[in-house]
Amino acid sequence: MSTTHSRTAGKAMISPAVILLFLWMIVPLAMTLYFSFQFYNLLDPVKSFAGFANYEYFLTDPAFFEALGNTLIIVIGVLCITVIGGTLLALLLDQPMFGQGIVRLLFIAPFFVMPTVSALVWKNMFMNPTNGLFAFLSKLVGSTPIDWLGHHPLASIVMIVSWQWLPFATLILLTAMQSLDSEQIEAAEMDGASALSRFFHIIVPHLARAGTVVILIQTIFLLSIFAEILVTTAGGPGYASTNIPYLVYMQSLLQFDVGGGSAGGIVAVILANIVAIFLMRLVGKNLDL
Amino acid sequence: MARQVTLNRRMVNTAVAWAFGLLIFFPILWTILTSFKTEAEAISLQPSLFDFDWTMENYQEVNSRSNYPRYFMNSVIIAFGSVILGLIIAVPAAWAMAFVPSKKTRGILMWMLSTKMLPPVGVLIPIYLLFRDWGLLDSRVGLVFVLTMVNLPIIVWMLFTYFREIPGEILEAARMDGASLKSELIHVLTPMALPGIASTMLLNVILAWNEAFWTLVLTTTNAAPLTQFIASYSSPEGLFYAKLSAASTMAIAPVLILGWFSQKQLVRGLTFGAVK
Amino acid sequence: MGSITLKQVAKRFGDTEVIPPLDLSIEDGEFVVFVGPSGCGKSTLLRLIAGLEDVSDGVIEIDGKNATDLPPAKRGLAMVFQSYALYPHMSVRKNIAFPLKMAGMDQAAIDAKVNGAAATLNLGDYIDRRPGQLSGGQRQRVAIGRAIVREPSAFLFDEPLSNLDAALRGNMRLEISELHQTLATTMVYVTHDQVEAMTMADKIVVLRAGHIEQVGSPLDLYREPANLFVAGFIGSPAMNIIAGPAAEAYGAPTIGVRPEHMELSHDEGTWRGVVGVSEHLGSDTFLRVDVEGVGTLTARAGGEFPARHGDTVGLTPDPERMHRFDANGLRIAG
Predict the structure, then answer these.
(1) Given an 8 Å threshold on Cβ–Cβ distance, is C54 in contact with A1?
(2) Are C150 and B177 a contacting pair at CB < 8 A?
(3) Which residue of A has its CA nearest to C50?
């Protein structure tokens, strides 16, 4: 519904954003693709064609499978904790209470904490086996303190990241819950639905859309978790807490293997695309345009 | 009609919710408290919550030793710079999508969202090498550009959802009233969308402030923002809990306060308008 | 000053033809109403005249000059929108001043004009308020004020009263008619409400699916509807349309009889039937009568005509005021 004039203006105004984003995406991606077929080390600037050798090296490296598994564990673990925990907490916060506004602020706070800060605070002040608060609590109940990051590095990271994202899930699910027409609940009550069936038949379907969005946004960020690993375990011990992004980072910027790192980068892109295709179909249905 | 519940029920809800709230908030509270302890008290094997000698020495120490103001300024410049640049690019784009939509609009929006799914490591090496060749490594300009690109899809999406709520008839009225495209954007659209633009800005400043991939891999000292400052406490200084806490408190306080103000818009913004 | 001529104007959205090529001329100073059911293309036609949409084919002339490719602002027209489209962040005064400011008029002249418009429309009391603080009727006045100050060669109204309640709608209808008397400027008015069309128009354009079904004065359309569609659309309550043997008795495949053109009696009549519903309005009584072999007819009786559900009544149409239509639904002259 518009004139040729405004459509032309529209194209002109949308172009800078589209062109810049396109360049930002396509130029480096093309270069990564090119490097991935080269033997290229930053310490030895002579490049030579490698064929699929970098891919072969990267994909047959046991570290790759470990990193792939770790990536999935982080994404799925954090999603489960935050979505289920978030739903329950949202249900709690939706109840009538005193000081709801302040409680909301307490709940949302961790989301605003810089990833490097939360990782370091958890690492040192909570999970440290001698001086950490968890160690203190263990000793209080008479058990041996656990070396969280040493013995359960992946679980620890899942825990830290969940703490960061739980507020996000809670807040969004709470907002969705509050938009539920209370007459619907009352009608269900009149129809004789118990509290449990009201939850599963009315509230949960109403939350589906918000839940989809929570999963989408979190997956985007969780696939690329980096800072939390860098400052807590540096991927270790061994590769026990290395995910794909961290593996690529190590390969390219710590071992200066541009070719190998690029192959890893392309693999990460392909994996993300598989997840993305799945997610976009989910989201396309749930976001009205 | 809000449902009436008994006072008892309300008290129980309150107690449970506050307990969970404090539990979740506790790590932040603990960090803030520890920042006022002496190092000895901070690592004490008998930690105390409030009962200690409050001191400001950690803040003084952190400030004098690590040049905190420079990191802080870098964070401010990078976060605000990237968001303002992003808004300049995104406002016209979102205008076009909201008011002159074509068959391609939906596709473009979905494509923009999908660029967010491109893992940063997929483009890490070329960006690193290009920045090295262009002398942009460890520069604020380079980082502003990168973060603009990283947040642009979210900025466009957020603005789009806000603009979409402005009735097209008002812009048409302006057109009938003789406004050029420029005056239409400046005198009519922007003032009407100001609350939306402000919350878009706020949320993206927070995201840029906390961005911890590009800020960590592309900076070392000159352009390093607070994320890098904290990462430098990784070890062995991290064992100085009180100083770590003071530095952390200073790094998170500004966004924590901004974030508390923007929490209502946060939901809408981060869900691309799907949840309001 | 203010004549508008459409020559073979057509509008297509992609492959869908919303308005097939049509011709229409609007004289200077005329109050023309486009009326039709929703989706008939009346708003699109108005937007084509405004320049908010491009025509796909044809020529639009304003004051004899080709305006087909002029941008909206250059056509010298003012528009009042259905939602009023006031600028929410500006006071009433600034809203009205906006078109003048865009035209680059100096502040003193702007003030004078705004004050003049405010006086005409009784906006004085809330001139410094924001649109959000105004009632529907007040907003409507501001929108009109914003249109008048530009001294356009024609006003375009897009269903301006549809967001008002019934009582206010009646008042605003009068006010707009009075405004037209005072300004004597061309007005093009779009509505789906035939009452608005009948009461305000000098000339009514009845549209259906982008086609002009008939153009004429309200009474022309009432007396001589060109086809069944216009016959059914103009007049309230709607004309009774009768087909079959009952119509053939009057020499046409289909006939139309307005409720007010039938004689009602308790004793006898051409058609006898049973009263289903009777609506007593005080001034009139409308009866829904089931007549076997003819159908359900609406008839108007005097305000105090005694009739109740189940009564048998007789209806006698006035053959002089009966409308006859051929098999294609077109009026049979006569």
Answers:
(1) no
(2) yes
(3) A3
Instruction: Provide the domain limits for residue B145.
Output: 66-232
Mean pLDDT of all residues belonging to chain C: 89
- Residues from chain A that touch C47, judged by Cβ atoms under 8 A, are 1
Nearest CA among B259, B222, B200 for reference residue B73: B222
Q: Rounded to two decimals, what is the model's pTM?
A: 0.80
Domain end residue (candidates: C158, C192, C226): C226
Q: What share of chain C is helix, strand, coil (3-state, %, to 5)?
A: 30, 35, 35
Complex confidence, ipTM: 0.81
- Asked whether the CA dihedral B183, B187, B188, B190 is positive or negative, the reply is positive
Q: Please report whether residue A32 resides in a domain.
A: yes
Closest approach of A13 to chain C, Cα-based (Å): 19
From B262, B276, B259, select the one nearest B210 (Cα to Cα): B259
Q: Which residue of B has its CA nearest to A226?
A: B213
Are A166 and B24 inside 8 Å of each other by CB? yes
Domain containing residue C282: CATH number: 2.40.50.140
Contacts of B183 in chain C (CB under 8 A): 102
Q: Is the dihedral of CA B254, B256, B257, B263 positive or negative?
A: positive
In a domain, B260, yes or no: no
More confident residue, B122 or C153: C153
Asked if A184 is an interface residue toward chain B (Cβ–Cβ < 8 A), one would say no
The span from the CA of C298 to the CA of C320, in Å, is 18
d(CA C67, CA C75): 7
Q: How many domains does chain B have?
A: 1
Q: Do A289 and B105 touch (CB under 8 A)?
A: yes
| CB-based contact B191:C95 (threshold 8 Å) | no
Of B170, B175, B187, the CB nearest to C73: B175
Q: Which domain holds residue C250?
A: 237-325
Q: What is the pLDDT of residues B208-239, one digit of tens each?
A: 888 888 888 888 877 788 888 888 777 665 56
Averaged pLDDT in 10-residue chunks for chain A of 289 residues: 72 87 88 84 76 82 86 92 92 83 86 87 79 77 76 87 91 85 77 78 81 84 85 80 85 80 85 80 62
Angle at B59 between CA A115 and CA B257, to 5 degrees: 50
